Amino acid sequence: KAGVTQTPRYLIKTRGQQVTLSCSPISGHRSVSWYQQTPGQGLQFLFEYFSETQRNKGNFPGRFSGRQFSNSRSEMNVSTLELGDSALYLCASSSRATGGTGELFFGEGSRLTVL
Amino acid sequence: AQSVTQPDIHITVSEGASLELRCNYSYGATPYLFWYVQSPGQGLQLLLKYFSGDTLVQGIKGFEAEFKRSQSSFNLRKPSVHWSDAAEYFCAVGKGGGADGLTFGKGTHLIIQP
After folding, report:
1. For residues A26 and B94, what is the distance between their CA atoms, to the nearest angstrom?
2. Looking at the partner chain, which of A42, A97, A103 has a beta carbon nearest the beta carbon of B98?
3. Which of A104, B57, B79, B94 is the most exposed place for a label (fewest CB within 10 A)?
4. What values do phi and psi take at B83, rounded to 5?
5. Per-residue pLDDT reduced to its tens digit, B12-47
């Protein structure tokens, strides 16, 4: 079955703009988590959605937001982009609301560059 | 708060040699522990996980890891590495009960020498 699909794979934005990233989980998976990966900070948890509800949130400013649709697809949005938001944004799906307990299946990521 | 330390940023191993990647965690209760691998330009793939029970867990691609509570460690091992094992390896810890996602270590970059 198809894996986790993230779009777009690469994008370039300028400071102050906003960006929306999309994630389609594995069919049947209802939990979607988002992580930010940077060389300096490594992998950091952004948030997790299960059945259209945000269940957990990491320590990121309110400029980072997300949502999940009834078909389990998820989007994350970053408003008022800063240079430090340049990163690989990874989406992961799981078959249940996992928090830190379940196996996560990761997509290949969306690489955002902020100029 | 939980934390994960991977002391080795880079490790170079000859093809066919054995491998051990170190991981130390900080967490008050029994943790949920994971090892993930990331190849260049790819997402993360789960190698193995430990929740409870036998402290030696087997994973995919010939990897295994041993949970040692007394040392707060969860080291990853492989008896004989292949050139295709060159990648970034991440240890992660999670709480039970669905809270706060996974906390990842900074990763260990594995280089395989021919």
Report:
1. 22
2. A97
3. B79
4. -55, -30
5. 999 999 999 999 999 877 788 999 999 988 889 999
